[in-house]
Amino acid sequence: MAYLTLEDGTIFKGEAFGAKVDIMGEVVFNTGMTGYQEVLTDPSYCGQIVTMTYPMIGNYGIDETISESSGPQVRAFVMRELCKEPSNWNCRETLQEYLERYDIVGLAGIDTRELTRKLRDKGTMHGIITQVPPSVHQIEEMKVFEVERPVDETTCAEKYQYCTGERKVAVLDFGLKRNILRSLEKRGCALTVFPARTNPQEIIAGGFDGLMLTNGPGDPKVNTEIIENLKQLIGKLPIFGICLGHQLVALAMGADTEKLKYGHRGANHPVKDMQKNKVYITSQNHGYTIMSRSLPACAVVSHKNWNDQTIEGVKYIGYPMFTVQFHPEAAPGPEDTAYLFDEFIELIDRKRRS
């Protein structure tokens, strides 16, 4: 038996598996029917207790070759039912074995519908998973829990080369998903991945054809040093930003961001490309959004979330730069929005010809 306690006092009782320790974090939900391994290994979930709304998790096991990072990034993983006997030809271990190996807390057997409704009604909350009912002190600690500088926890320690190719692209790693690198590799890019706080002059002096700004965790506004660095890079070379990269560019251009009530997390979010007049099904994982009224005059909204009309993409007139909030590399469509990587390559090639 284990307990998930929310900051409003609500308690859910369930079955503990994986690491049986006490853990606290921000409680969020993901609506994906598949892709739990990609969720587990997405660095954007750093500091979060993730609840899956799909009722059974673990039914196809774990295959390390599809992980988005070196291991699980969540603080805890919550579900209605844990499948202990997966069936898939690629399965190498069960979800239970995987979480045990990485010392990640798992919690099964709770009413995830009730939990999701509560988060939708009241908004994202802090929570704590304990093996016995939590103490008053633990609850007070949980209410003020924060991960300081989560980007520093998820970025690479030093720069590295990922692949070879015709176009030299620098990648600023804020907590990247590996499929971003794979998507650029398929398009003939030689990638050099840099830590998040790399001096911008090193990138400018590197003779790169383009700059990729990746996804990552946390409140974009706490990354003040990175925002200042981006101000020096904007206009110097073609830029494509995804998720946190999208938000950081907006902040560097003078816009503002705000926290969403419960965020967008799942593989079924409709997004409209305003220029193509077409709606795509996208994968998303973010808790913040750009405030439309704060955008500078040069910013044109290229994509909108068709559920709540929040900004999902921006193009900057006069700059070789565009960004999107969703994840075109995640392929929920399955590859409907991969055209954005092609547009980035076109932007690079146009710059190289000029």
UniProtKB/TrEMBL annotation:
Pfam entry (one): CPSase_sm_chain
Cited PROSITE patterns: GATASE_TYPE_1 (PS51273)
Carbamoyl-phosphate synthase small subunit N-terminal domain sequence ranges: 1-130
Annotated GO biological process: 'de novo' pyrimidine nucleobase biosynthetic process; 'de novo' UMP biosynthetic process; glutamine metabolic process; L-arginine biosynthetic process
Entry superkingdom: Bacteria
Single annotated GO MF: glutaminase activity
Biological role stated in the UniProt entry: Small subunit of the glutamine-dependent carbamoyl phosphate synthetase (CPSase). CPSase catalyzes the formation of carbamoyl phosphate from the ammonia moiety of glutamine, carbonate, and phosphate donated by ATP, constituting the first step of 2 biosynthetic pathways, one leading to arginine and/or urea and the other to pyrimidine nucleotides. The small subunit (glutamine amidotransferase) binds and cleaves glutamine to supply the large subunit with the substrate ammonia.
Family matches, as SUPFAM superfamilies: Carbamoyl phosphate synthetase, small subunit N-terminal domain, Class I glutamine amidotransferase-like
EC numbers: 6.3.5.5
Protein name in the entry: Carbamoyl phosphate synthase small chain
Catalytic EC class: ligase
Keywords of the record: Amino-acid biosynthesis, Arginine biosynthesis, ATP-binding, Glutamine amidotransferase, Ligase, Nucleotide-binding, Pyrimidine biosynthesis
Active site: 243, 327, 329
Annotated family: Belongs to the CarA family.
Binding site for L-glutamine: 44, 216, 218, 244, 247, 285, 287-288
UniProt region (CPSase), positions on chain: 1-167
Swiss-Prot/TrEMBL catalytic activity: L-glutamine + H2O = L-glutamate + NH4(+); hydrogencarbonate + L-glutamine + 2 ATP + H2O = carbamoyl phosphate + L-glutamate + 2 ADP + phosphate + 2 H(+)
Keyword Amino-acid biosynthesis carried by entry: yes
Summary of subunit composition and partner proteins: Composed of two chains; the small (or glutamine) chain promotes the hydrolysis of glutamine to ammonia, which is used by the large (or ammonia) chain to synthesize carbamoyl phosphate. Tetramer of heterodimers (alpha,beta)4.
Pathway note: Pyrimidine metabolism; UMP biosynthesis via de novo pathway; (S)-dihydroorotate from bicarbonate: step 1/3; Amino-acid biosynthesis; L-arginine biosynthesis; carbamoyl phosphate from bicarbonate: step 1/1
